[in-house]
Give the backbone structure.
Amino acid sequence: MQPATVLQTFRLPFLVLTPVSVLLGASIALASHTAVDNVMIALVLAGAVAAHISVNALNEYHDFSSGLDLQTNRTPFSGGSGALPDHPEAATAVLITGLLFLLATMAIGSSIIVITGISILPIGVAGIVLVATYTQWINRSPLLCLIAPGTGFGILMVVGTHLVLTGNYSAPIWPVSLVPFFMTNNLLLLNQYPDIGADASVGRKTFPIAFGINKSNLVYALFMAAAYATIVLLVASKQIPFSGMIALLPMPLSLIALGGAIRYSSRIGEHPGYMAANVAAAILTPLLLGIAIITG
């Protein structure tokens, strides 16, 4: 076993999205001065990070075992980490690690259910199914593949965190969760552009493969507009404080990323600055929103 290789498959820089989602989920509870148990926050964060590591490691293993890794042109944001093509002997260790983190997610979720009750069970089950089926099955359905990332990091993590901390579904949490839903869907959508040919060769059917770049750009634009419009509507309806408008600041980054997608199409991977702008927007928007809700 090569620990460094296994660690590389965790895709550590991308794990930052998980604490951002948990923070956003906790923000309304914290802003309302609800008595928040720090142990519960730690458990939720640990379970969410374990799930993220699991899906990353399993995805790396399946991409390698299917031969996909040998066909992709890796960029800093797409095409995998390159860990297993460089160290194929670590493949079994990566698979085992991914499964162990999935079991850890289930164990942490079970602990939360014992402490808080079964209300979180449907969200937990949905999360486990999402992790276990993402690479092998969800990536073969264009529409499921399109919305799966936002469902996981937006709705399940954000709403689930809030439910664990408060014991209820307070009204603002659902529209608030739509912001990372749309932004995270866009994050993964754009990252699929450079891999269209390679993904198609192993039977994947992502949205760009099924419907083409032009329609994918249109969906990106609609999701972007929906995310930022949701923020404005939340402020206008006074469900979140006016300071929530600060979450609109990353919008130029999304526009830059969309411009790169329109200009370079599937060759956007050759211009990583546009993909970096996309990643930054997906992280900064919910982060600023969460901070604004807590402090406002």
User: Anything to note?
Assistant: The CA atoms of residues 50 and 196 lie 28 Å apart.
